[in-house]
Amino acid sequence: MNKLLSQSELDTFRAKAAASAHPRELIVDLLRAIQDHHGWVPDEGIELAAEILGLSPLQIEEIATFYDKIFRQPVGRKVIHVCDSICCWATGSEEVAGYLRRKLGIDFGETTADGAFTLLPTCCLGACGDAPAMMIGLTLYGRLTPEKIDAALEKEKSRSQESGVGSQGKTS
Ligand code: FES
């Protein structure tokens, strides 16, 4: 058992890497698996991914830092990504962000004292028709109002209490 991946995940990724002509294609899936297991991707996770895929740590790091859904430092049990791209900006994303900051008592880039939520801005979530939108974990919430935000936070808080630490990427 590895603290960053279960033994079966290790075996699966080693087998996939051995069978792949382009192991780089496995980087995101592998980093997501490490993140699901550990809650975020520490330096040891970058090194482990490099070793499994036969790539350099720098090649892994380039991908890890490109995707804003891969976390290279500790985050709360759930990460809230608030869209600030054009459709959401035009329909009230600044009000959504302000409401969340006041409600949670944190700014972007911070985590609540109870470790429940980390707040981050993000570019378009692909839910422009339901703007303004946010994503908590992998669940999209659109046409946001203060009432809908309150309901989403309650729902996500109870979900993460049920599933525990490392539930960031999981949906139900
Ligand atoms: S602009 Fe916000 S979801 Fe597309």
UniProtKB/TrEMBL annotation:
Annotated residues that bind [2Fe-2S] cluster are located at C83, C88, C124, C128
UniProt GO molecular function: 2 iron, 2 sulfur cluster binding; metal ion binding; NADH dehydrogenase activity
InterPro entries recorded for this chain? Answer: NuoE-like (IPR002023), NuoE_dom (IPR042128), NuoE_N (IPR041921), Thioredoxin-like_sf (IPR036249)
What does the cofactor field's note say?
Answer: Binds 1 [2Fe-2S] cluster.
Protein name stated in the entry: NADH dehydrogenase subunit E
Entry's family note: Belongs to the complex I 24 kDa subunit family.
- Which cofactors are named for this entry? [2Fe-2S] cluster
Instruction: Give the record's keywords alphabetically.
Output: 2Fe-2S, Iron, Iron-sulfur, Metal-binding
Under the heading NCBIfam families, the entry gives: nuoE_fam, PRK07539.1-2
This protein's source sits in the domain of life called Bacteria
